[in-house]
Design brief:
The complex is a heterodimer of chains A (309) and B (254). In chain A, 72% of the residues lie in helices and 4% in strands. Chain A is mainly alpha-helical and 309 residues long. Chain A has a domain of 212 residues. In chain A, the strands form two sheets. In chain A, strands 1-4 form a two-stranded antiparallel sheet. Chain A has a two-stranded antiparallel ribbon with strand order 2-3. In chain A, helix 1 packs antiparallel against helix 8, helix 1 packs antiparallel against helix 10 and helix 2 packs across helix 8. With 254 residues, chain B is α/β, with parallel strands linked by helices. Chain B has two domains: 179 residues, Rossmann fold (3-Layer(aba) Sandwich); 70 residues, no CATH class. Chain B has eleven helices and ten strands. In chain B, the strands form two sheets. Chain B has a six-stranded mixed sheet with strand order 6-7-8-3-9-10, with helices on both faces. A four-stranded antiparallel sheet of chain B has the order 2-1-4-5, with helices on one face. In chain B, a hairpin with a 2-residue loop joins strand 9 and strand 10. The longest helix of chain B has 16 residues. The radius of gyration of chain B is 18 Å and the shape is globular. Chain B starts with 6 loop residues before the first helix and ends with a helix. Classes of the chains: A mainly alpha (309), B alpha/beta (254). Chains A and B meet through helix 6 and helix 7 of A and helix 3, helix 4 and helix 7 of B.
Chain lengths: 309, 254
Amino acid sequence: MESWEILLQQVINGVSLGAMYALLALGFTMVYGIIELINFAHFNIFMVGSFIAMWVMQLMGFTGQSHVLYGLPLTAMLVFVLCVTMVATGVLGALIERFGLRALRGVSGTAPMITTIGLSYILFNVILLGAGADTKNYSNPMPNIRWEFGDAVLHLRELILWGVSLVLMLALHYFVRRTKMGKAMQATAQDQEAARMVGVDVDRVVIITFFIGSALAGAAGVIFGLYYNYTNFGIGYTAGLRAFTAAVLGGIGNIPGAMLGGVLIGLIESLGGQYLAVRWTDVIIFSILVLVLVFRPTGLLGRASPTKS
Amino acid sequence: MPISDAPQTQSQRRPPLLEFNDVNTYYGELHVLKGVNYRVGDGEIVCLLGGNASGKSTTMKTILGIVRPKSGVVTYAGKPIDRLPTAERVRRGIAPVPEARRLFPRMTVLENLEMGAFTRTDTDEIEADKERVFGLFPRVKERLTQLAGTLSGGEQQMVAMGRALMARPKLLCMDEPSMGLSPAFVEQVFDIIQAINKQGTSIFMVEQNANMALSIADYGYVLQTGEVVLQGSAQSLRDNEMVQQAYLGEMKAQ
């Protein structure tokens, strides 16, 4: 492989990872933006999402790599699996907020955050005990269509995953910028008490934020399974921490920042793995986390404009 | 000497829109409002005077349901509202202009105004109210696309009042509308408050600038460490020796 081919291949890989991290980072950033809480349960909502999608596909009769779909059936199936998974993880996130975290809202200190860690472990162990510790082979109905650029390869599945991620992010952007509930979210993030005073039902905004963030984590779980062709109960930890780093890198609380941070972390992972060494990937990524926290705690994009007057 | 409400002044007042009946509010152990009674007549401007930590802001928060009274009843438009969440109170026509404005800093002026109409769905009427706000505050119209956090204090006050009006309130609750504004601006703000009142909105106003507040109010209350120590028509309060010394004199001395 020529050096440019290696670079191109790693950029393709990095963008794929980045698309997934970005979806996952959005959930962290949205929840933090609204109630200044780092939701560590988010890691394992992502993991649960990858299992739900796997089970849905199994129920539909897809096992292993043997069933390949094309065109409309493929589209319909992916949309269906995504929708079911996203609704399921969204409801899971909403339940966690309602019954796990709402009572702790307004409690100062670390109690709510520690609770999210506990909830994360519950999800982790439920899947471990219910589905077993072995790595599951993921059914994958995507055809092996590929384009070659020299020795660099772009698979159809990568294009599809980029597309899914892009559509979801655009939909989120539209929702937050243009809809009434989106405006209520922005208002709540900027000044919760003022939002209440103009008649925003803050409890509703918070639970919907958890729903959306968790639904996006579910989508990221589907992407993980379809990209790597496997899942297991432990995938939430590594991907979750990287996505969290992406959210901090982009500026925690900042939605475009999470998208940018996600893609950057994906690229850093793939390029760092190529040009330094795979075993240094985590060192690089978490060094970035530390450096950002020390030198630019507001992240790359930070707050878009002046803070509270 | 506290002067009690003379019967003839009370009967001359309009029917009540908002009433506090023996309201006690606590922050934890701290007894902030101690059995207070207020009454805002329909169409009136009522001002609440008092120094720091007298319970003025807590009164506002009690009206809006941000804090709940431990005992006593808050009645609005003939119905007790103590159990209602803030959003429902806004829907029923209570709109706040909070202390320090509390605009959404990273939203544009236009978006801030639109947030004021959050509980409404009557699109045409909302547009009409926007025009009404632009009529009252021409400056706001010039700044529509600017982020609210970048406005001057006076401009922010105008946007905050405009935002509150977008809810088409029956009762406007203003917390320190003159705070941090230049004297010229203060006068302008009070003129506009009067104009808003003439368009049919009742106003309950907490204010340190007693001189200005009493010049436009119909009725006033003086609050001291959580208790109403004095009440009466704005004229009677201006003539009252204690008010002159504690509030008006202070203004003159500045």
